[in-house]
Amino acid sequence: MIKKIGTLMIIAALTVSLSSCSSIGIGGKEISVGGKNFTEQYLLSEMTAFLLKEEGFKVKQMNNLGSTVVRKALENKQVDLMWEYTGTALITYMGKEPMSDPEKTFQKVKELDSRNGIHWMNMSEVNNTYALAMTKEKSEELGIVSISDLAAYVNEHPGALTMASDAEFANRPDGLPGVEKKYGFSFGAENIKQMDIGLTQRALDNGQVDVSVAFETDATIRDYGLVTLKDDQRFFPPYRAAVSINKEVYKKYPEIKEITARLATKLDSDIMRELNFKVDVEGNSVSVVAHDWLVENGLLED
Fold first, then answer.
1. Which CATH number applies to 27-127+238-296: 3.40.50.970, 3.30.160.20, 3.40.30.10, 3.40.190.10?
2. pLDDT given at position 268
3. Rounded to two decimals, what is the model's pTM?
C-alpha cells in the first residue's frame, strides 16, 4: 500500500510539473508574431517583438510571408498575432465592398472576423492605402493639391498630363477606373504608361510622367520629395494597420492589448514612411531602425 501510494504521488507530481511547463512554456510566456514580405511589415513585427520581449514574452517571429499565407497561418493558429490592414481584411479576405470610413471599416472587420476566432484591436493612424503622387514642383506649378484639382485640370487640358501606373491599379475597380469615375475625369488610355509598380515613382521623378500611383507610406515619396494628392472625396478605402490576434491567445494574455497600444497610439503614415525610408533608402537594418525608434519614443529602454 505504501509503495502504491508513493508511486501515485510521483505520477501526480510529474503530471503537475508537465502541466505547468505546458502552460507557461520554457522561460515563461510564449507567442508567435507574423509578418508579410515587405519593409513596413518587417518593422511592425520587429517593434512588436521588442515590446513583448521587454514584458517577459518569448517571441517567435514568422516574417517574410505572403499576405494570404500569413492570414491562413493566423486562421490555423500557426501565428498568434500580426499587424493587418483593415482594407485588406474587408475586401480581400472577407469579400466585402470597400467602405470609406476608417472606424466603420475597423468595426466591420472586427465583427466579421470574430466569427473566425480572430480579435481586432488597436487600430493605428498608419494608412497603407493607394494615393496619387506628383512632384512638388509640378504640383505647385499647376496648383494641384487634391484629386479634385487634378480632375479639373485634366478636364480643362485634355491629354496634357500623363500618368504612371502598374497594370493592377490601371484596371481594378478600386484603382484608376474607380478614381476617374468618382471624380469625373479621364486621362485617356494613350496617356497611361503602364510599368512595374517599383518604377512608377522613379518615372515621375525623372520627368517621364506627371502623375504616379503610390502608397501612402512608400519610402520613395520621402526619397523623391513627392506630394500625395488629397483624396478629398474619400474614394480610396482605408488600409489602417491594426492588431489581429487569435482569440484564445488574447484571452490568455490580455495584457497584449496594452503593450501593442503603445505602438498603435504613436505611429502614423508620416512616421511609417520615415521608418521605411531609413531601411529601404538609407540601408539601415530593420532591427536597428525599430529598436532606435522605440528608444527615442520612450517605449523601450536603451
1. 3.40.190.10
2. 97
3. 0.84
